[in-house]
Design a protein that fits this description.
homodimer, mainly alpha, 8 helices, 3 strands, about 10% strand, DNA-binding
DNA sequence: GAGTGGGTAGTCAAGTTTGACTAGCGAAGG
DNA sequence: CCTTCGCTAGTCAAACTTGACTACCCACTC
């Protein structure tokens, strides 16, 4: 799964109604263009796809209020919201070691009730443990690991990565159970999107972490 | 960068001369279809692209020796070998948190002289440290990290991941400096490809996309 | 009042990736 | 014999991604 659908659905959903450029700006605010495929072309493509699939509703072009060409506004549909939560739960639960999906999921985690977030993350740690077990079992030959030569280092990397992620997930669970952050149904939500006319403090044009050289 | 070019170039290079299906099997032997985009379509596409760019030389179709349709054989060119080492060095040096590129690079690391492998990995740890510093500096607002709310967990994840990877890289450096594995110019290389007619011990019989039914 | 620089809001062609599909051949079974 | 199964060795259309490009409008200068 690519992160783009989750990102776009979530961004539109938080706005209620948004046009492409707004989504693009939100995701830049998140730094998402750095760590995911949320680039202009992909965003507009995703918006059209999602609209075609009935997950977003496309309002006819409206004249721009601040200069620039007219724009299409999108609103999330009921099925779109369902899909958003399906993708979010899936991204939080399953271990697939893709940074972009994981990061996007954390960005939206507060859209869930606290108890569910914790439950999904616990499910995630179970998934990691299982995956770890299946790697060690499946890829270590009977004649000992030397059999694999340096290829064994790949499995070693995986195990190491899985362990690190398990530890991080547990830390997050602890923080959430300890009362951190504001989740769905707990009052004023954290504002993760840019209000109209607010300058993006992170749109520096500089090189950011995650930039490919 | 996707891992496919590195994987395909490396696989053809280790064989000297190989046809698509052989590359496909090698990569399955590595488990690469699990952790990268090395799926049939992508492999054959990459082979054609690389041939078009002069990095591989395509020999006209040869009749199959074991049944099945005729096949095209590929051989790596001088420029192809250069490109392979460029990609390999780049993948070992730069921190881009993509599992597939990283895993592919480890798979081929023994194609380099031992000293260079160590040097590149040390460069990598420097890169990770630099990246870590730039994240903490750039994404932590002056008014304290609370400003970011749960979004801060994304940066937390990145830091955690970077630290884990730095530790793993250091471990690998230590093992290599300690004399592990056989590198270029050190005698009989480790066989990372399947010889003709040898059964793939990791072909689990599971159904994969692209398998004929 | 003509150019031009910058922000807004996208489009587009080229390239890549995916997963389903095809086609050739030998072996086994009836 | 002739059909079916399974392996070999791919092809292909559809979808997705990328990065460069366009078009519009405003504000400002010269």
């Amino acid at each position: 799964m690519s992160a783009i659908r989750l990102l776009v659905l979530g961004a539109v959903r938080q706005h209620g109604r948004a046009h492409g450029y707004q989504v693009r700006n939100d995701l830049e605010y998140w730094g998402a263009h750095e760590w995911s495929n949320a680039k202009p072309g992909s965003i507009y493509h995703a918006l059209k796809q999602l609209a075609k699939q009935g997950l977003l509703h496309a309002h006819e072009v409206a004249p721009s209020t601040v200069g620039g060409p007219p724009r299409t506004e999108y609103e999330i549909t009921g099925r779109g919201s369902e899909e958003f939560f399906t993708l979010l739960r899936e991204a939080l639960t399953s271990y697939d070691q893709q940074m972009d999906v994981k990061s996007a999921a954390i960005g939206f985690i507060v859209e869930l009730p606290r108890a569910e977030a914790v439950a999904l993350l616990k499910e995630r740690t179970r998934g990691i443990a299982q995956w770890r077990a299946s790697v060690t079992e499946h890829y270590i030959p009977e004649d000992g690991p030397e059999q694999l030569g340096h290829i064994g280092e790949i499995m070693n990397l995986w195990i190491h990565t899985a362990d690190a992620e398990a530890a991080w997930t547990q830390g997050l669970i602890d923080r959430i159970e300890g009362g951190a952050y504001t989740f769905a149904g707990e009052g004023e939500p954290f504002v993760g999107v840019l209000a109209d006319g607010v300058e993006n403090p992170y749109a520096t044009g500089e090189r950011h972490p995650g930039d490919a050289r």
